[in-house]
Amino acid sequence: MTSTRPAPEPDTASSASAPAAALHTGTSDPRTLIMRNLRQSGIYVAFIVIVALFAILTDGVSLSPGNITNIVLQYSYILVLAIGMVIVIIAGHIDLSVGSVVALTGAVSAVLVIQQGQPWWVGVLAALAVGVAVGAWHGFWVAYVGMPAFIVTLAGMLLFRGLTLQVLDNISLSPFPAEYQRVANGFLNGLLGGQGFDAFTLLIAALAVAGYAVSEFRTRVARIRYQQPVESFPLFVARVVLVGAVIMFFGWQLAHARGLPIVLIILAALVIGYGLVTRRTVFGRQVYAIGGNLSAAMLSGVKVRTVNFWIFVNMGFLTGVAGVIYSSRANGAQPAAGNMFELDAIAAAFIGGAAVSGGVGTVVGAMVGGLIMAVMSNGMQLMGVDQSTQSVIKGLVLLLAVAFDIYNKRRAGTSR
């Protein structure tokens, strides 16, 4: 899936004659600004609209403290997978094996902890090690042998599902010890007190809003400095306020349920860490360069094979993390675990703004895309919608998200 098309030549004449301010002060063509702003902020608007829609359809049940907590616990492993998947997709690849690898890592952990009586942390480390080994296996074939990632990971889907059946001997294993279960089912509460709510959870939510606002402002300033297009300032402020309000509401509801889920802390650490890696490091820039224009990346001195290898090693590591979370949540390992997880992770990345051809996408966008899928699935379950209809609706949402990306590209091409 790696894109080898040459990058379009920049319009140097227009960029030289137009001052940087024209990129963000509203002096450009209004239709161009609307399309640009829609692409940058449309995913946030869509998320809020979908949340509001299901709140109405379920008479507010979808926004109850208990249900929001359940959404976090039930879909956290998909969000972890989406982080790795969006990086893979940015580089122009795909990984179809993550569901099978989630099952395998959970199976290895269960055999060690449940059957052999090893400490719970041994199972966690073993699951992570298996995930990294699988990622290295995929990375070798993709990066150094030159096979398409689609074929390699499709083979991996079958291979590691079969290994899962062998490891578990076609039976389910349970239960895990209480310490292992706390990874996906534990909470931090009561640290700062609170009358009828957990003050620590609200404090963490407030810090998250402040961190988000500062990060977005710094990103906007940097883009303006390098004369890159940004959304209009009023829309930027509105987006930050809306996201901040959503986070605080989310924290308020958690604070009135069981407190701050431990798995949410793990997920937040991964989002922050990988957000910095993709936006602030040489490795992150090289991933975007490979997906955007492979030939140009090679000519620029990017070690494409090495970067591709570590992309899949990273995907394997995150799959191991997801395997631990899922097996902890399920309190056991099953041969059929992780079924269709790869499609949910891919859908989250594309709905969150990743481009099919590579070179475009963000970790935050993948998180929002994953949350949209989570809210939709949870809302339809609360409404009693049958599974077949849920699949149809989620398929249509994914199709529309990719169609919107293609439409934007065509609009950008015709406006040159």
Please tell me about this protein's structure.
By secondary structure, this protein is mostly helical. The chain has one domain. It has 16 helices and 2 strands. Helix 11 crosses helix 13. It is globular, with a radius of gyration of 22 Å. The N terminus is likely disordered.
Quick summary:
The protein is an all-alpha fold. The chain has one domain (22-414). It contains 16 helices and two strands.
Strand content: under 5%
Q: For the terminal residues, how far apart are their CA atoms?
A: 26 Å
Helical element count? 16
Strand order of the largest sheet: 1-2
Give the number of domains. 1
What's the Cα radius of gyration? 22 Å
Q: Biggest β-sheet: count, sense, barrel?
A: 2 strands, antiparallel
Percentage of residues in helical conformation: over 70%
Low-confidence stretches: 1-28
What is the average per-residue confidence, as pLDDT, rounded to a whole number?
Answer: 85
Q: Structural class per helix/strand content?
A: mainly alpha
Number of strands: 2
What form results from the Cα inertia axes?
globular
Order of helices and strands: HHHHHHHEHHEHHHHHHH
